[in-house]
Amino acid sequence: MASVMAANGGQSHAPVTGRFAAVYSEVQNSRIDHALPLPSVLGKPFKMVNGPRSSAAGNPDEIAKLFPCLFGQPPAMLVPGESSDFPSGQILKIGVVLSGGQAPGGHNVISGIFDYLQDRCKGSTLYGFRGGPAGIMKCKYVVLTSEYIYPYRNQGGFDMICSGRDKIETPEQFKQAEETTLKLDLDGLVVIGGDDSNTNACLLAENFRRKNMKTRVIGCPKTIDGDLKCKEVPASFGFDTACKVYAEMIGNVMIDARSTGKYYHFVRLMGRAASHITLECALQTHPNISLIGEEVAANKLTLKNVTDYIANVICHRAELGYNYGVILIPEGLIDFIPEVQQLIAELNEILAHDIVDEGGLWKKKLNDQSLQLFEFLPPAIQEQLMLERDPHGNVQVAKIETEKMLIQMVETELEQRKQRGTYKGQFKGQSHFFGYEGRCGLPSNFDSAYCYALGYAAGALLHSGKTGLISSVGNLAAPVGEWTVGGTALTSLMDVERRHGKFKPVIKKAMVELDGAPFKKFASMREEWALNNRYISPGPIQFSGPVADTVNHTLLLELGDTA
Questions:
Q1: So which residues are the catalytic ones?
Q2: 240 close to 548: Cβ distance less than 8 angstroms
Q3: Spatial separation of the C-alpha atoms in residues 471 and 463, rounded to whole Å
Q4: CA distance from start to end of the chain
Q5: Which end of the chain is less packed: N or C, by CB atoms within 10 Å?
Q6: In degrees rounded to 5, what are phi and psi of residue 436?
Q7: How many CA atoms lie within 13 A of 227 on its CB side?
Q8: Of the candidates 372, 370, 352, 354, the residue with the CA atom closest to the CA atom of residue 362
Q9: Cα–Cα distance, 503 to 90 (Å, whole number)
């Protein structure tokens, strides 16, 4: 691999990446040169066709006030044909930034942008901003070349340019971003991120347009949580790979449970705001119990209700001679339980304004129900609820070991039932958290191709002069050649929230829909899975063979539901 020099504010430095010194496995090496198909529309001359004027996901009047330059933009679709929208011989300067947590396939989005510029705008330059949005503000970048990008193709991680969770939101930060785009003479910027990052991308696009700057901004949908999607953007990248990684591990513990016959494995899975990962992994592996946060919230279940539900299944299985099983828990479960939400809200207020004394006098500020719940929780969970809040003032859910809490609560409940003579089995709980393991795996064939198409589409959107859109690739249940390509107005995905007395734009998170096809499929089978051992062990991600191109259940069921 060739030596590469990185630029930092115009200065040359040694490479910041470790990939050039890394030793690759045979699988990694084989993936680097894995040829990626493109939707057929991208392989021929194409033109841009605009759709009808867009609105917003909620509060369109407020969104229109916040984005006067962008609101109402039509979606765009690439279709075969010649067009003056894509001037030949144009040389572009494009920046790209990774924002937020890692998701498998991010490197292929960058590869897709680069290849578009090589194919359609020869002589163009692609700048990679290092360390996330902070790289834009501090003008820290690397000029991405063919040699630099090569070892990252079809590889997991975000280490080509690394990511960050900074936001560009204050007047000073917007000014810094403007100075960087002017210094590099950027024609466009691609923001690869989740809902917050794409909201930020839209704010940047609005700011640049309002100031008549030439820099245009396009977003790309990234999050393993699967909660950034809509009809026009059917999937966020990384979800497919992450769920397949988790499903392999769940299948492994299922075999362990059946082999030993004496353990209940409580598996907490990533996904704070939505339970898409838990639902998809359930559809892939058939566990005995899967808790779906959105259903818990809809039915207003208490922590005691959840504990009783788990205990009831364990008792029924014991009667059948099964003292083992697998239980899936979404990372954000406690956020969905109304009484816990109330407790957290009260704790947030106390932690924001009061000193928590060791004598416990602060507890008197909790209402009776919240105090009773707090005392009901195991001591370790009490401590975790009191941890420092995140920058948004939220409880750091990833640090709350919900699976261990449920093991202790179920253990207590079963002991009480044993004393009453209603339970005669044996219970041993094993806790697991499958989180970061799924974020940087080698992307599946689906995510590899999907991300490459998203990046290529982002290049086309910028080339045609579009801004404030999110790259959209659809018809994903069909072969890659039949995928559709275009862009969706970011403002059409938005609603507003009241924060500090002002309306703030937010891209609405896509939650598990209880009347949607994926949940209905799960609900129709869960009683059978609860009592009978219908475990499926999918095994590791396959890159060749009969199941290599299999798409996740959620996407197939959702697309089938809307067909």
A1: 225
A2: no
A3: 13
A4: 46
A5: C
A6: -65, -20
A7: 23
A8: 354
A9: 40
Is the pTM value of this prediction over 0.90?
A: yes
Crossing angle (nearest 10°) for helices 517-531 and 303-319? 50
CA atoms within 13 A on the CB side of 232: 21
Q: Tell me if 224 sits within 8 A of 103, measured CB to CB.
A: yes
Contact residues for 1 (Cβ-Cβ < 8 A; gap 6+): 19, 20, 147, 150, 151
CA distances from 44 to 108, 481, 497 (A): 21, 12, 43
Name the CA dihedral angle for 158, 121, 181, 66, rounded to a multiple of 10 degrees.
Answer: -80
d(CA 527, CA 532): 8
CB atoms closer than 10 angstroms to residue 394 = 12
